[in-house]
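Continuing the series of single-chain predictions for the mutant panel. This is the parent chain; the variants come on the following pages.
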Amino acid sequence: MITTIVFDIGGVLIGFDWESYSHSLFDKETAREVSAAMFETGYWDELDVAVRTEEEILASFYRARPAYREQILEAFERVGECVTRRDWVIPYIQDLKARGYRVLYLSNYSEHVMRANRAALDFVPHMDGGVFSCDEHVIKPDPAIYRRLIAKYGLTPEECLFIDDRQNNVDAARTLGMRAILFENEGQMRSDVERECRG
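Parent structure:
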């Protein structure tokens, strides 16, 4: 029986469309180079881990694409514009809680993105708690962050339903005994949640 529903945040409870965002700022080539510096290098994950300082990580971005330093900084400083609030989230959380489910979050999230658009996280107080990677210094799909959530809330993995938009994170949850759903869109997720909770 499912008693707890655990949500990823970016790409599930909020929109995070980097491609559209970067193309709104720059021409196609610049957007590609800036994105490569920030994401293809793996340095963006270091923001979510929050062991190195933001200044150190920015310096790593710059070293990856020195000719695009100014544009990298602009994309970094304006990243709050990349995060979009989803109107259905709070009512859905409230509905799940009214039906007796505990609702938690487990998210790779950086303090920088949090500061950049706090309004998009207005659903967090409506939840029963959760874990941000920047507080734990470990990111999904590392099993350690799932175990920290489990320990913090005394969860029974087999009673948890985990929802994420990345297959590797879904797979990691399943290896720990959780049931899990790959998020594609709101309608598909709602349907899958109902099916899993009935099962």
